[in-house]
Amino acid sequence: MKKYISGLLLLVSASITYAQKVTIGGIIKSKSDGETVIGATVKADSTAGTVSNEYGFYSLNVPSGTYVLEISSVGMETIKMPLTITKDTTINIKMEDGSSSLQEVVITESTGGRSLKSAQTSVEKLSMKEIEHIPVLFGEKDVMKAIQLLPGIKSAGDGNAGMFVRGGAADQNLILLDEAPVYNASHLLGFFSTFNSDALKDITVYKGGMPARYGGRLSSVLDIKMNDGNNQDFDVSGGVGLISAKLNVEGPIQKDKSSFLITGRRTYADMFLKLSNEYKDNSLYFYDLNAKVNYILGDKDRLYLSGYFGKDKLGASFGDGEGFGLDWGNATGTLRWNHIFNNNLFSNTSLIFSNYNYNISIKSGAYDFDIKSRIQDLNFKEEIQWYLNNNNTIKFGYNLIHHDIKPGEVKSNDLTSLNSTALESRYALENVIYASNAWKVSNKLNVEYGARLGTFTILGPGDYYGLDANGNVNDTMHYNSGQAIKTYLNLEPRLSASYMLNTVSSLKASYARNTQNLHLISNSTSSSPTDKWLASTNLIKPEISDQVSLGYYRDFANDKYELTVETYYKTMQNQIDYRDGANVYLNSNAIESQLLFGKGRAYGLEFLLKKKVGRLSGWISYTLSKTERQIDGINNNQWYNARQDRTHDFAIVASYELSRKWTLSANWVYYTGDAITFPAGKYQVDGQTVYYYTNRNAYRMPAYHRLDLGATCKLAQRKKWSSELAFSLYNAYGRENAYTIVFRDNKDDPNKTEAVKIALFKFIPSISYNFKF
Amino acid sequence: MKFIKSYHYLIAALLVLSTVSCQKVINVNLKETDKKLVIDAVLTDQKGGCVVKLSQTKEFYDDNSFTGISGAQVTISSNGQLLSTLHETSQGVYVDSDLKGNYGKAYELSVVLNGKSYTAVSTMPYLVPFDSAYAETQSFFGNNYTFATVMLQDPVDTQNNYRCIQYVNGKRTKGNFILDDDYSDGKRFESTLYFDQNDVDSIKSGDEIRIDLLGIDRPTYQYWFSFEQSASGGQGSAAPANPVSNIKGDALGYFSAQNTQTKIIIAP
């Protein structure tokens, strides 16, 4: 361990050269609402340049003298500021919003996202403005659905919350909301995400080449940031749609110093249920609440406290007080402290809480019981950003996470029909240190290198098991509270580099290793709130992925168009799948007895052509890819297509500003059907048709395609009051995309079997009204 | 925890109600594969219950009729001692009308066909008395459905597995009603036999409901559990697969030594 650390430090310091210069630094904010500006470019005389970090902090080294300081950011008016600087100086900057018309927006190189120069590869960044016009189901703007229109990020399909990034599984995406992991990012079984776009600032998705500060999942990082809250004026905005209503209130607590934000959303489809006689006792809704306060404690310190609470409730009544209920939800809380030691040194300390739980309650006939399950994290994080000079920015940090997993507890309320049982709780502790350096080698070459070194320790109390070759328990080991049962040590090197070919194009390459110690066990094709999170055990090894990617980036026509072409190859170790006929509800303490382990590989080619400005904006994305698994005990130990293996995946997203009043939008998606197992034949056992299966995932679902249309009409556009009407039509040409295909005996002629395709949504129109004052 | 699955149906039902779903019979182009032997073998605690059916897999678009395989030597033994060589009474159906099993005893099935041998072992569970059954009406989403409920007293400290077969006016209801005592060891079972109302006419007042309660061993329970999970053609299973069989040798199907009890009730 010690060897690793000193190795890391050596690595980091290798490229550092010292120079006697002065440093200017500070915080960049928006003048209108006081929100910090992330990724703004700061240049002195167009030579030395830097960008603001995720808290709006920037730091720039310059020789003492006179300069024009130029600050620019997407959607903001560029500031040019003449300065004479002889010593280290703090300059806080307020930027004015740019004109609202897209045509006039000054284009600047955005950094958090794609940038020619930055060494970061395989990253996508979307602002809420970019997703504003994308037509969606029931008119609910949704960042999660929007990013699934980008190359390499695949939707799991209608009615499914999952998302597959570069061949990864649905549980291999690290979803962070203000740094807090969100374990189940879906509402209503996947039709909506837990993220209310009104509360969000932006989303950054890393598909590869993850910076060293992120870790814990194999395939992607989704870093979602909430707005801080307007510290200048009170703002109220809201919307009423077909199935939900939402309200956002923000404003200063003390002007310029502190602000708050509260955003709430609730669906009311169940109100209609109440109106009908048949369904009046049933419930089906979700709500979520985002809240944030922040305080500026002088020039050097700022505190943020943010939280998210969401809940879904499903309930069915059988009459006579009997019924069934299922509710689930996430709760997260993040307390952060920004401290500026000096213009070169920025620190962020975070305390993070994250919880996901579900409850099932059943009262029917003889049964009266509840089932509870939850996963809870406590997380401490410290990161230092050291702006050593204009050519080296070092980030290093420490992260300590405690996981507490209660896989399931059955509480019987009558004790006549069921015994109360609890599966054993699982505890684990993660310790991670990381360091990275963004090194500007020359004007053409940028390199970012670093590593994460982490331990994952499984803690007692609990029983752990040994298994024989057939998966039967042959050994049970008892451990006491606090006892370290097993520690996994993982080193994750990260490297990425960019080389500017000329002023409009660059080449980039990256390598990243990721490890994952929390695994989602799902028994069905669609995601379910009752899917189980498991920590690594003595038998479940950490999942490991290694990915290399190579990309070509090109801007056209004065940066109006950007083209991104990337290719990747990824290998995955210790992938998990079920044994045939696995039963995860039974013997669940030794759940390993139901699992098989193997490996995976994924490779592909991604194209993205984006038009960012002008009346017509949007993008075209295409992915050509292959994803396979090899697990002993499945498919005769041969490689087989993973479910998410889709050869082609295509999306067009466009919006057109028809007039100041009307904006039209459309998106069209097409992808190869998922790989799936169909029966090779059938036979009769005990008078029932049993389907005979040979090869895993050897067939394909029908290809999926869909067109959505949208139109937004701005009504009033005044400073104190603005409103708009948004229309959308989901699945405009009514394609019956297969949700699932089932095989069954024909009802009228039981001597025959038939394949039946079940499709959801055809033509779902919606209308919503949004306002702001 | 079978009921959890039943309630997943409910969620699905709620979802389907809340959206516009449509079903369409489609033609799926399925490749032909080699035929495989299917063994459907049962020994019960009653005379006439020892029946072994041999057949082969069929193409998906073939009919469902039973096409038996003749010429096999089928024997049942216990503790290595041959109890019976079964007679082929019709094509592919091998029977010993006198053989019945004893509780707590392990039985070995052997099938020899075309020089290949297939074997399986099953233990007949001790009988747990089938106390009673009743039918009552439950309301789901404003509609009333009648379901039968079986009652029995599970013995403490033994692992018990049950399977029910329901006939309404002589017609067998679809679905496998399998029960376990993993979470209810030693409890009084009052288990409702929920079944898919879309596929079969619902139970009406005055209908005759016959319920066979089978006591089965764990491998047989596993067979039916995995059949329900992954081989019944239904939606939802992440990985369709052949049921977990207790037959050794390259064959499909199962062998169960099981006890059986029957109750007949009239729907109110």
Characterization of this structure:
- Chain A has 773 residues and is mainly β.
- Chain A has three domains: 2-104, Carboxypeptidase-like, regulatory domain (Immunoglobulin-like, Sandwich), CATH 2.60.40; 123-224, TonB-dependent receptor, plug domain (Ferric Hydroxamate Uptake Protein, Chain A, domain 1, Beta Complex), CATH 2.170.130; 225-772, Maltoporin, Chain A, CATH 2.40.170.20.
- Helix content of chain A is 4%, strand content 59%.
- In chain A, a hairpin with a 2-residue loop joins strand 23 and strand 24.
- The radius of gyration of chain A is 27 Å and the shape is globular.
- Chain B has 268 residues and is mainly β.
- Chain B has two helices and 18 strands.
- In chain B, strands 2, 3, 6, 7, 12, 13, 14, 16 and 18 form a nine-stranded mixed sheet that branches. In chain B, strands 5-4-8-9-17 form a five-stranded antiparallel sheet, with no helix packed on it. In chain B, strands 10-11-15 form a three-stranded antiparallel sheet, with no helix packed on it.
- In chain B, a hairpin with a 6-residue loop joins strand 2 (37-44) and strand 3.
- The model of chain B is unreliable at 1-10 and 16-20 (pLDDT under 50).
- Chains A and B meet through strand 22, strand 23, strand 24, strand 44 and strand 45 of A and helix 1, strand 1, strand 2, strand 10 and strand 15 of B.
- Strand 50 of chain A pairs antiparallel with strand 1 of chain B.
- Chain A: It is a multi-pass membrane protein.
- Chain A: This is TonB-dependent receptor.
- Chain A: InterPro entries: Beta-barrel_TonB_sf (IPR036942), CarboxyPept-like_regulatory (IPR008969), Plug_dom (IPR012910), Plug_dom_sf (IPR037066), TonB-dep_rcpt-like (IPR039426).
- Chain A: Residues 1-19 form the signal peptide.
- Chain A: Residues 117-217 form the TonB-dependent receptor plug domain.
